[in-house]
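Two proteins follow. First one:
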Amino acid sequence: MLVLDHLSAVLPTKTGVVLLPQAVMMRRAGSLPLCRRPLRSVVYILSCAGAFILGSLMTLMSVDPMRCDIHQCTEKIKRIDVEDTNSWLGMWGHNNKGPEKNVFLVIVFLSAPVNLEQRNVIRQTWLSEEKSDTLHFFVVGVGSLSEDLNTTIQSEQKRFGDMLLLNNIIDSYQALTKKLLASLVYVHYNVKFRFLLKCDDDTYVQISQLHRELKGVPYKQRLYWGFFDGRATPRKTGPWKEADWVLCDSYLPYALGGGYILSSDVVTFIATNSKYLKLYNNEDVSLGTWLAALDLHRVHDTRFDTEYKSRGCNNDYLVTHKQSTLHMREKFNSLKATSLLCREQFQVRKSYKYNWNVPPSQCCVRNDSSIP
C-alpha cells in the first residue's frame, strides 16, 4: 500500500504513478494568473458579482408592485406574466415587502372587459356603502383587446382606480381560474387584511350586514365560507367541460363561485403554493380542490344564494348571484326605502343544508322549502 505525505502529489501514467514533490507543485501553481495576483483576482471577482447584484436589484425595484401605492400597482402588474407565479413569488417575497394597504375586508370581482355597465351599477348601489376598512378590485383580462375597448378600460381605470388589469390574459370563461389565482397572489403580497370576499360582477351583496357578520364570526383563521356542493358531476362537454379532471367521479366539495369568503391565512396558503396548483376551467372547483386536504372551517350558509341561477329573493340573503343591473337597483332602492332586500320574498327552487356527516354524494337534499 502506497502512503503519500502532505508534501507530495500523485500523477497517473501509463506505467503507474509519479510522485511530485511539493516544490514542483508550487512552481506549477505559480504559473496560473489567479495564483500570481490573488488579491487583484479576488477584487475583480467581487466587483463583477456586486455589479450583477446591483443591476438585478434595480430591475426588481422598477417592477416590484409593492413599491407603489395600491392603485399605481394596477398599472405595473400589467407588465408581469400572470402564468409565471414563480417570478411573482421571487419578486414579492417577504424580504421585499413595501408599504401595505391595511384593511379588514378585500372584495375581488372577476369581471369581463365589456361589462362596464355592471361595474358601474355595483359602484352606484351596494358598493357605495363600502366601509372605510374595505378595499375592492375589479379583475379584468385586457390581452388582445380592440383599440376602442382598451381605451374605454383605461379611461375607466383612470376615473375609478379600482381595477386590476391583467395584460397577458385574454379574457374568457376559460381564463377565470387564472384571474382568480392572479388576484389572490396580488392581494396576498400587497394588502394586509383579515377576510377576502370573491364574487362576480352580477352579484349583489348586503355589504353592511356582511361586514357585521364577519366582525362576529368565531373563525378568524382557516375559514372557507359560502354555499357548498359536494355531489356535482364533472362535465365532459359544454362551457363547464373539465377534460383534465381525473381525481374521482365527482368534484370535491367546493363553495359555489357566485360569492364566498376566505380568511387571510387561506389566501396565504394559495398564494405561496401557487406554482404547484392545478388550474381547472371552473374557478370555484379549482379552489375547492386546492383546499381539499386542509383542515378548514367549511361553513355552508344558505344565506349565500350563489348557484348558477338565483333561488329567488329572501331578506336574509347576504350574497345573491345572477342579478341583472335592474335587479341590483331594485334591491338597493328597497333597502333604502324599507330596510328590506326584497319588495316581496319568493322562492323558485329549494335550498338545502349541507350534511357533512354523510358521503358528499348524499350531502345536499332539497326537501325543505322553509330553508332560504
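Second one, unrelated to the first:
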Amino acid sequence: MQLTRTSTSVASRTSRAANVVPLRVSATRCQQCRLARRASVVVRASDENGRVPTQRATYAELESIQCDLSAFPGVKFFRIEAIFRPWRLPFVVDTLSKYGIRGLTNTPVKGVGVQGGSRERYAGTEFGPSNLVDKEKLDIVVSRAQVDTVVRLVAASAFTGEIGDGKIFVHPVAEVIRIRTAETGLDAEKMEGGMEDMMRKKK
C-alpha cells in the first residue's frame, strides 16, 4: 500500500513538473501578450467616440476672434459671460490678470453639455443629454474697445479642443456705477493698473 501511494505521489509530481513552464519562456510569453494588447488599443479624443473627429479651432483662430457688436451701436459697456471647464479656471484668471483685467466675478455652475449628439467627458465620467456637468462661470464687464481682446484671452486660455470646452456670451450693459465713489460710466469701469493703464505705459 505504501509503495502504491509513493509511486502515485511521484507520478503526480512528475506530471506537474512536466507542466511547469521555464521562467524565461513565461516572461517572453507575457511580453508578447502585452505587445499584442498594446497593438490592439485605438486611442481617440473623447469627443470622437468612434465617429468622424469634430472640427477644432487653432490658436490663431481663437486669437483673431471678432465680436459683432453692430446691433448695439450706442452701447459703451459689455458683459462677457464665459462658461468653461473647472480645471481651466486658474489659467483663465491668470491670463486675464497678466493683461490687466482685474474686475471679474466667478460662480461655480452646472449645465447640460452635449454637442452634436456626442457625450462629454469630465473627471473620467461620460455625461449624456440630461446630465448636469460642473462648470465655472466668469462675468467680466469691459468697455466696448476691450471686448474682442478679452474674448480672445478667455477663449485661448480655456481651450482644450474637446467637447465641453464651454461658451462665451456677450451682453450689452447700460451703465456702470462704482458704489464707493458714486462714479459712473468709464470712470466707474476703469481699474487702476488695468488694461487701459498698461496700454498707455507701452506707448
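SUMMARY FIELD: The first strand starts at residue 77 and ends at 84. Residues 2-40 form one domain.
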